[in-house]
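2024-03-11 09:14:02 DEBUG pipeline.ingest accepted 1 chain
2024-03-11 09:14:02 DEBUG pipeline.ingest length=253
2024-03-11 09:14:03 DEBUG pipeline.predict start
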Amino acid sequence: MMEGSTPKWTEIEHLPEWDEEFYHVYTAKKYGKWLMLKTLRPELKGQEEYEKMIEKEFEVRYNLAHPHIIMINDYEEVPGVGMCIITDDVYGDSLEKLIREHKVTDEHIYKLHHQLLDALDYIQTNHLAHHPLNASRVLFTENIGNLKLIDVGFDQKNFLTHEETNDDIYNYGVLLNQALDAVDTPHPRLRKIAAKCTAEDPSKRYSSLSALRLDLAETRSNRLYIYVIIFLVAMIGLLLWLSSGHAPAPLNP
């Protein structure tokens, strides 16, 4: 009944700025609902190697569920486009675009060392082989600025090598530095963390995401400690002032 009353696919539009190495990306409506489509580039269609690649990516990502990763919900033929991985449509800007347009805020920085690391941790825990992390693969949604990671895995392994997990740490440091370059507020502690992530000698980098997250947690704890000290000093100063005789006397009723 639905197919007879409403066209299944409408408003299909290619999004060149979203294209990936092997894929073209489209936005479209399915029964009136906006979705995103990912399909092989025309020159790769019909080649068994690449046909198996997109099928494998669908199989790997279909059962993933994380609030900061764009989820896949189907794999089907779309008229005029071909076989597509179907995901929910996400309105927003990539970190790459925000950096280019000098629109990075402290809120974006905060989410990079919370939500992005949560997503990376999920990817590593599930042993997902993925393309290198970069600013074009990090998206902030239009309304609430929620971070979403796209293109998160094309294969699932029994384990990830130390080199693979180390690459995530290095690429995270590069991305963090790029974002810090585009924000007005100085973040000296985060600069040090980014520098350790990108140390020329891999043995000088964080040994794991857990170690990186622990260092970030200590940074937040130190900041909270400073705020508490400032508050206590202010309260002590207030009490000394009230007991010094310089405070105004209470009014008599």
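2024-03-11 09:14:41 DEBUG pipeline.report The chain is about 40% helix and 20% strand.
2024-03-11 09:14:41 DEBUG pipeline.predict end
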